[in-house]
Specification:
Elements: H1 8-17, E1 18-28, E2 43-54, E3 61-64, E4 69-75, E5 78-80, H2 82-85, E6 90-93, E7 99-109, E8 116-121, E9 128-133, E10 155-160, E11 166-169, E12 173-176, E13 179-182, E14 195-198, E15 201-210, E16 216-225, H3 235-253, E17 262-267, E18 274-275, E19 280-284, H4 295-311, E20 319-320, H5 327-344, H6 350-366, H7 381-386, H8 391-407, H9 409-423, E21 427-428, H10 430-441, H11 446-452, E22 460-467, E23 473-481, E24 492-501, E25 507-517, E26 521-523, E27 535-540, E28 547-548, H12 552-561, H13 568-583, H14 589-599, H15 606-623, H16 629-646, H17 652-664, H18 668-679, H19 691-703, H20 709-718, H21 722-734, H22 738-750, H23 756-766, H24 772-775, H25 778-792, H26 795-804, H27 813-825, H28 831-857
Parallel strand pairs: 1-10, 16-17, 17-19, 20-21, 22-28
Antiparallel strand pairs: 1-2, 2-7, 3-6, 4-5, 4-7, 8-9, 9-14, 10-13, 11-14, 12-13, 15-16, 18-19, 22-23, 23-26, 24-25, 24-27
Helix pairs in contact: 3-4, 3-5, 4-5, 5-8, 6-8, 6-13, 8-9, 9-10, 13-15, 14-15, 15-16, 15-17, 16-17, 17-19, 18-19, 19-21, 20-21, 21-23, 22-23, 23-26, 25-26, 26-28, 27-28
Length: 859
C-alpha cells in the first residue's frame, strides 16, 4: 500500500500543471473466463490514450497505474521503455509539451478484494460477473489515468467481452463486431467511471418528465442483478423509488438529470452500500432480499437509492476539489437521501431512522480520538479511505439539517440550485457553497461554518428546571457542555418539549418552544409559567446535532414510562440518549438492558426496535460487568423468547424478535428450540422459517458446538449459492474449537486466497462474544501481524483485518496496555493504520469504564 499512496500536495502540484481533455479506454475482458494466463494473477488488457495539456512545457509529472505489467508506453509519438518509467504504481512523464498524448498498453489484474475490476464466479452456476469499484482511487487498477477528483475529463470506453454478455458503462453502449462502444461521458472524475460485464439479468423501464417550458426529458432506466438472484428481484419497487426520487430532485434542483441513462446494478461481494457512478450506479446485492425482511430493510434500500441519486448533482455534476471536502458530496447525499425519502416516498418516518440510527453512528465517531471536523484535513489517499465515516456522512447530514433550520428551507434549496448552475462539471471547496448560501439567506455563514464544519466534537445539552410551589415552571434553562479536548460550544436551534401523562397513561407533549441555544447556559423564556413536566426533552423533533441529557425527574419518568411515549420520534430520541448515557458510563449496562425489555415490546417503529436489539447485545458484550455477563445473557434470551412468543403471528415484529432470539440464545432449552425450528419439529405460530432465517438459527448452534461441519455443509447443499457460501463460512469459523480458530486466522491473516466477502464472513464467525477464552491467544498474534498485513494487502482487506480481529473481547487492562504499547512502539507506522488501532484502544477504554459503572451498580 505505501507505494500506492498519493498525497494532497502531489495532487495540488499536478492539478496546477495539467488539464485533461479526454480519455479513450479499451478493455479486453475475454480473459475473465477460461484458463488463467500463468502462475500470476489473472489479467486483462487495458489500452488507454489520454490527451492533456501542460501549463509549463518541459515539466515532468506522472500518471497513475497499478498493474502487474506494462507492455508499451508512448508519449507524444515517442516509445518509452516501460521498465524505466513504470514502478508498479506510477508512470514517469518528462519533457511534456503544451499539448500531449499518452498511450499506455498494460496488463491489469482482476480483483478479489472489491477494488478495481472485481471478478466473481457464481458457485451456483459457474458464471463469471465483473464490475468496477474505484472510490477513492482504484480506477488506476483498470486503466492509466490522473487519479484525483479535480482533473475531470470526458471518457470514451470500449469493452470487448465474451459473447452473450451484458456490458454497461457510464454512457449509452452499442455492440459492433464483438466490441461494446460507449458514448462519450460528460467531464467526470476518475473515481466515478464504471464498467459492468457479465451475464447479468436485466429489467428495463423509462422515466419521462415534461418541464414548464415544454421540454421533455426521457431517461432510460435499467436494473440489473446476477441471474441467480433474478427470482428474488423486485425491480418494480426499485423503479418506483427511482422515479419518485427523480421527480423530487427535478422539482427542487431546477437542473435536469445530466447523465443520459440511469442504470442500477446490484453486484456481488461489494465493499460499500452503493456507489454513485453517473449512469451506472452500483449497489451491494444484499439489497435484493432472498427471504422475509421488515419494512426497515425496504426503507434502508430506498434511502440508499435516493442517496446515490442525490450524488448525481452533489458529487458527480459538482465535485470536491480534494478529499478534504468529501462532505460536499457525502453529507449532502446523506441528508438529501432522508429528506427526499420522507417527502417523496411511502417511507414518511425516515427522520426517525435518521435520528436513531444514522446519528448514533455519528455520535460514536465524534467521540473517538480520531474525530475530525466535517471538512477534514486529508493528507493522502489512506486518510481519504478512512474518512468515509460517521462524521463525513451522518454528522455532516445532521449539520445540514441544522443549517436548513438556520437559513430556511427555501434559501437552502435556492442555494443548491445556484451552486449547480455556477459550478456544473467543475470542482469546489467549502467557500463556494457558503457563498451561494449567504446570497440566498442573507446570513453571514463564516461563524456558523467555523462552529459546525471546521471544529470537531459533540456537545451535550441538559435541561435545568425550577418550579414554584404551585408546580409551575419559574425557569427552564439548557446547559451546554463540551469535552476538554474539543471545547467548542456551538449555536443550536433546538425545540424543547414538555411531556406529561394523560389519564389514559400516555406520555404526551403539552408544550413546546424553539430557542437558539448559544453559550454555556440559555434560558428558554417561552416555557416559563407552564405546568411542571414529567419529561423535558431537549432537541425535541431532532433539529440539531447533540447528545441529549436528562434532569433527574425526566430520567425517572423514562425508567417507568418510556414505552408510554406516544410520539415515535420522541421515543427514538430518548432511546438514543439513554444509549449515549450507557456508552458514557453514566448508566449501568444492566439498567439499559432492563429498559429494553421493559419497554421495547411496545416499540412500533421496526427500525428503532432493531437498533435496540443491537444496542442491548453491545451493552452486554462490552459494557456489562464480567461477573454479570452470564446472568445478563440469560435475561436477554429469556426476554427475547417471551417477546417472540407474544408477538403478532406473521408480523415483522415477530420476525425481528426471532432473529434477536437466535442471536442471544444461550441455554440448552434455547438451542433445542432453534434445532426444532430448523428441523420442523418445533413451531411458533405465524413464524415462517425461510432459508435466510435457517442460517440465522444455525449460526448460534455452530457457535455452541451443536452443529458440526457436516451439518453446516448439509445446509450449504440446500442453499448452494453465493449467499449460502458466505453463511457457511461464517458458521464454520464460529465453531468453538482451537483448531477451527487457528484455521480461520491462517486463512485471513497468513493467506490472501479468500475474496473480500469471505474474509469478512470468516472474521465475523471468528470473533464470537461467548468464546473469549478460546480467542485469548490471538491478542499477541494480532499485534505481531497487523503492520505486515497493512503493508502487504490491499487497504480494504487491511481495514477488515485491523478492525475485525482487534482483541476487543479480551477487554481488560492488560489488553489495553498492550494496545498502547504497540502504538508507542510504532509511531512511524502508516497513519491510517495507527488511526484504526487508536480507535480500537479508545473503544476498549470506554468499555472498561462502562464495566466499572455496571459493577458499581451491583453494590
Amino acid at each position: 500500500m505505501p507505494g500506492e499512496n498519493l498525497s494532497r500536495d502531489e495532487a495540488r502540484e499536478r492539478a496546477d500543471l495539467l488539464s485533461v481533455d479526454g480519455y479513450e479506454v479499451a478493455l479486453d475482458l475475454r480473459s475473465a473466463v477460461g484458463e488463467t494466463d500463468g502462475d500470476g494473477p489473472r489479467t486483462f488488457r487495458s489500452v488507454t490514450t489520454i490527451r492533456f495539456r501542460c501549463a509549463e512545457p518541459g515539466a515532468a509529472t506522472f500518471a497513475d497505474l497499478i498493474a502487474p505489467s506494462v507492455t508499451a508506453v508512448t508519449l507524444n509519438g515517442l516509445d518509452l521503455d516501460p521498465a524505466a518509467v513504470f514502478d508498479g504504481s506510477r508512470i514517469a512523464l518528462e519533457d511534456l509539451l503544451a499539448e500531449n498524448e499518452l498511450t499506455v498498453d498494460a496488463r491489469c489484474a482482476y480483483s478479489r478484494t472489491g477494488e478495481g475490476m472485481h471478478r466473481f464466479v457464481d458457485p451456483e452456476d459457474g458464471e463469471v460477473y465483473l464490475y468496477t469499484q474505484y472510490e477513492p482511487a482504484d480506477a488506476r487498477r483498470v486503466f492509466a489515468n490522473f487519479e484525483q477528483p479535480d482533473l475531470k475529463a470526458p471518457y470514451r470506453f470500449e469493452v470487448t467481452a465474451p459473447e452473450g454478455w451484458t456490458v454497461r458503462s457510464n454512457g449509452e453502449g452499442t455492440l459492433t463486431d464483438g466490441t461494446w462502444r460507449f458514448a462519450e461521458t460528460k467531464p467526470i472524475s476518475t473515481y466515478i467511471t464504471a464498467v459492468l460485464a457479465g451475464p447479468y439479468h436485466e429489467v428495463t423501464d423509462s422515466y419521462r418528465r415534461t418541464f414548464a417550458d415544454g421540454t421533455v426529458l426521457e431517461i432510460p432506466l435499467a436494473a440489473l442483478c446476477r441471474k441467480g438472484l433474478a427470482r428474488y428481484f423486485d425491480a418494480e419497487d426499485v423503479f418506483l423509488v427511482t422515479k419518485q426520487g427523480l421527480d423530487f430532485f427535478h422539482d427542487h434542483f431546477d437542473y435536469p438529470y445530466p447523465f443520459g441513462k440511469y442504470d442500477q446494478a446490484f453486484v456481488p461481494e461489494y465493499n460499500l452500500g452503493a456507489m454513485e457512478n453517473p449512469g451506472l450506479v452500483t449497489f451491494r446485492e444484499e439489497y435484493i432480499f432472498r427471504g422475509q425482511v421488515t419494512s426497515a430493510s425496504y426503507e434502508r434500500r430506498a434511502n440508499v437509492i435516493l442517496h446515490e441519486m442525490a450524488h448525481m448533482w452533489f458529487g458527480d455534476l459538482v465535485t470536491m476539489t480534494w478529499w478534504d471536502d468529501l462532505w460536499l458530496k457525502e453529507s449532502f447525499a446523506d441528508f438529501m437521501g432522508s429528506f427526499s425519502m420522507v417527502e417523496a416516498t411511502r417511507f414518511t418516518d425516515g427522520w426517525i431512522t435518521f435520528a436513531n440510527n444514522r446519528k448514533s453512528w455519528a455520535y460514536r465517531a465524534d467521540q473517538l480520538p480520531s474525530t475530525h471536523p466535517v471538512t477534514a484535513d486529508i493528507r493522502d489517499l489512506e486518510d481519504a479511505k478512512l474518512n468515509f465515516d460517521g462524521i463525513t456522512y451522518a454528522k455532516g447530514a445532521s449539520v445540514l439539517k441544522q443549517l436548513v433550520a438556520y437559513v430556511g428551507r427555501d434559501a437552502f434549496l435556492e442555494g443548491a440550485r445556484r451552486y449547480f448552475k455556477r459550478h456544473a462539471y467543475g470542482n469546489t471547496r467549502l467557500g463556494d457553497l457558503l457563498a451561494v448560501l449567504e446570497e440566498t439567506s442573507g446570513r453571514e455563514l463564516a461563524g456558523w461554518s467555523r462552529a459546525w464544519l471546521e471544529t470537531a466534537g459533540v456537545n451535550s445539552l441538559t435541561p435545568q428546571l425550577t418550579c414554584d410551589a404551585e408546580g409551575r415552571i419559574t425557569e427552564l434553562a439548557v446547559v451546554q457542555d463540551a469535552t476538554p479536548s474539543h471545547p467548542q460550544l456551538r449555536p443550536h436551534r433546538v425545540a424543547v418539549g414538555l411531556y406529561r401523562r394523560t389519564a389514559d397513561g400516555d406520555l404526551v407533549r403539552y408544550a413546546r418552544a424553539e430557542a437558539d441555544v448559544d453559550g454555556a447556559r440559555t434560558v428558554v423564556k417561552e416555557l416559563a409559567g407552564a405546568e411542571r413536566p414529567e419529561l423535558v426533552l431537549v432537541n425535541d423533533d431532532d433539529l440539531t446535532y447533540c447528545k441529549i441529557r436528562f434532569d433527574a425527574g425526566s430520567l425517572d419518568t423514562l425508567r417507568d414510562h418510556l414505552g408510554d411515549l406516544t410520539d415515535p420520534l420522541a421515543r427514538a430520541l430518548c432511546w438514543s440518549a439513554l444509549w449515549n448515557l450507557t456508552r458514557d458510563a453514566l448508566m449501568p449496562a444492566r439498567d439499559f438492558i432492563g429498559l429494553v425489555f421493559r419497554h421495547a415490546g411496545r416499540e412500533s417503529d421496526i427500525g428503532v426496535l432493531q437498533m435496540l436489539h443491537a444496542w442491548a447485545r453491545s451493552a452486554l458484550t462490552h459494557y456489562a460487568a464480567p461477573a454479570w455477563r452470564e446472568e445478563g445473557a440469560l435475561l436477554l434470551a429469556q426476554g427475547a423468547l417471551s417477546e417472540l412468543r407474544t408477538a403478532e403471528p406473521g408480523s415483522q415484529h415477530q420476525l425481528t424478535w426471532a432473529r434477536f432470539f437466535a442471536a442471544v440464545a444461550e441455554s440448552a432449552s434455547d438451542l433445542q428450540l432453534l434445532r426444532g425450528l430448523l428441523a420442523g419439529t418445533a413451531k411458533i405460530d405465524g413464524l415462517s422459517v425461510d432459508q435466510e432465517l435457517r442460517w440465522a438459527f444455525l449460526e448460534p448452534l455452530a457457535a455452541h458446538g451443536q452443529a458440526d461441519e457436516s451439518v453446516i455443509d448439509a445446509e450449504l447443499a440446500r442453499d448452494d449459492t453465493a449467499s449460502g457460501k458466505r453463511h457457511q463460512v461464517r458458521c464454520l469459523a464460529a465453531r468453538p474449537s482451537a483448531a477451527v480458530k487457528a484455521q480461520a486466522w491462517a486463512q485471513v491473516v497468513e493467506s490472501d486466497s479468500l475474496s473480500n466477502a469471505l474474509v469478512e464472513a470468516t472474521i465475523a464467525g471468528f470473533a464470537r462474544p461467548g468464546q473469549r477464552e478460546l480467542l485469548a491467544p490471538y491478542a499477541a498474534k494480532y499485534f505481531a501481524a497487523i503492520e505486515r498485513v497493512w503493508t502487504e494487502r490491499s487497504i480494504q482487506i487491511g481495514m477488515y483485518v485491523v478492525r475485525g480481529l482487534f482483541p476487543a473481547l479480551q477487554d481488560d487492562r492488560t489488553t489495553l496496555e498492550a494496545t498502547e504499547s504497540w502504538l508507542a512502539a510504532h509511531r512511524n507506522a502508516a497513519p491510517a493504520l495507527r488511526r484504526l488501532v487508536l480507535e480500537a484502544a479508545d473503544d476498549m477504554a470506554r468499555s472498561l469504564r462502562g464495566q466499572e459503572c455496571d459493577a458499581a451498580a451491583a453494590g
